[in-house]
Amino acid sequence: MDKIIFFTKAPRLGFGKSRLKNYLDENQRLQLTIDLINENYKKIKKINKDYVIYYDGSKNDIDFLSGEKIHQQGDDLGARMKNAIDKQLILSDKVILIGSDLINLSEKEINRAFEQLDYYDIVISPSDDGGYGLVGMKESLDIFSNIVYSKSNVLEETIKKIKEMNKTYKLLDEIYDIDDFTDLLKAEFSSKDIELLGAGEYNINYKYKNKVIRINLQSQLGLGKEQIKYEYIALKELEKSTVTPKAYELYDKGKYLPFGFLTMEFIEGRALDYNKDFEIAAYMLSKIHSTKIEDSKLIFADKPFKNMYEEFECMYSYYKDWENKNKDT
User: Fold this and answer.
1) Which H helix or E strand runs over 319?
2) In degrees rounded to 5, what are phi and psi of residue 200?
3) In angstroms, how far is CA 45 from the centroid of its own chain?
4) Cα distance between residue 140 and residue 83, in whole Å
5) In this predicted model, what pLDDT tens digit does every residue of 107-133 receive, in sequence order?
6) Secondary structure letter of residue 255 according to DSSP
7) pTM
8) For site-directed labelling of 298, which of 13, 165, 231, 282 has its Cα 20 to 30 A away?
9) Mutual orientation of helices 107-116 and 26-46 as an angle, nearest 10°?
10) pLDDT for 46-58, tens place per residue?
């Protein structure tokens, strides 16, 4: 008999996905965790194998899943995985343990993991952060002890242990999990080809193939969630200037991103250097500001310099009241 262990933390408000707290609020992080658990749980239920849920946390917080539930036991992650697998191997011929926040793990790959155990002692699906999201075996083997699971060499150390035991192993296709914001973008676009271009006070930009993904963190215009839509409309209007990137798509919400974003043209080049590129900068700005804007939904300033000065006063007021401010500044 084969057995799947669905290994998960019971989701709770304020806990988990801490590396996303600068981008998602508590409720958004909780909902993301629940969505990932449900998504992977559905895949497991479709496979014709027995399964059991091993959870960490409060049982009440995992009640939205049906099936047998066992609380994880052990002082660290390695001990908890080892104890779960050892217990299930008493009753099963093959055991596969699967994490709950995986993105691209398919039912086909889970079945393949069981098949490969006919030829290898251990199967592992590595993750792109240096760890793994799936591990399986057909006999109790301690490949978990004395490994620090928060580091990027988890898979490397695990393979080292396997070789020291003279056991065979099979690495399956790489899978992704969501730890940080870049992982969230990789999940959203189902691609590893995501690269951070730059982040500012109000937005963050990533390169995806020949596109830029633009996400607003705050609104400089005080528009809240409507800021990204406003920028999309502005970019569409400014395409006539011929010096701004073309806007492609506007998304109200993504599959994993709980807010709106847009994609626009990626243009090869370098950062502007005002010491060298003053004339180019002046030309580009003149083209932008002389473009005839027809969309009435955009904001028109009767006194733009006055608006900029008032914005400066507002921003400076925070610095002026800061206890660590530089007096010369």
Assistant:
1) helix 304-320
2) -120, -165
3) 25
4) 10
5) 999 999 999 999 999 999 998 888 999
6) S
7) 0.81
8) 282
9) 60
10) 998 999 999 999 9
